[in-house]
């Protein structure tokens, strides 16, 4: 009878260990960068895989800490590529990571990219983020004449 109890206990221990070997993703997608290998012992905070969720790509942009206050989630981002001069896209800032890198003094800003067949993981893209704009009145230089008192006189056609 003691052998049966010991076997049941050993079975429960092994079943619990087997349960701990399963990795279940909260999202569907493709594994693009496996970080862990079979047999590795990992920590709970360690990344095991990078998953591309249903072909959704994001652009990770490094922003200096001095400019972080100018960036907001939902802000429009203009995206271009040096490899393809025809590639001109717009993305939206999804998230600003809360931690600034101590060495570079930069934070990562995640930008959601539109679904495009031309985009591939690992591509190098350039980003323009408009942080300030204002409306001003402009005139051609030949329509403005300086006056002797320091003022200017403008002419309209």
Strand order of the largest sheet: 3-6-5-4-7
Low-confidence stretches: none
Oligomer: single chain
What is the helical fraction, as a range of percent? 10-25%
Distinct helical segment count: 1
The chain-level structural class is mainly beta
CATH class of the domain at 55-129, anyone?
Mainly Beta
Distance between the termini: 107 Å
The main β sheet shows up as: 5 strands, antiparallel
**What percent strand?**
25-35%
In one word, what is the shape? elongated
User: How large is the radius of gyration?
Assistant: 28 Å
Instruction: Give the overall pLDDT as a whole number.
Output: 83
CATH superfamily of the domain at 55-129: Efflux pump adaptor protein, beta barrel domain
Q: Under the CATH scheme, which architecture of the domain at 55-129 would be assigned?
A: Beta Barrel
CATH topology of the domain at 55-129: Elongation Factor Tu (Ef-tu), domain 3
Order of helices and strands: HEEEEEEEEE
Q: Count the strands?
A: 9
Descriptive notes:
The chain has 157 residues and is mostly beta strands. The chain has a domain at 55-129: Elongation Factor Tu (Ef-tu), domain 3 (Beta Barrel), CATH 2.40.30. Helices cover 11% and strands 31% of the residues. The chain is built from one helix and nine strands, in the order H-E-E-E-E-E-E-E-E-E. The chain has one helix spanning 2-19; strands spanning 29-34, 49-53, 58-64, 76-80, 88-96, 106-112, 126-129, 144-146, 152-154. Strands 3-6-5-4-7 form a five-stranded antiparallel beta sheet, with no helix packed on it. Strand 4 (76-80) and strand 5 (88-96) form a beta hairpin. The mean pLDDT is 83.
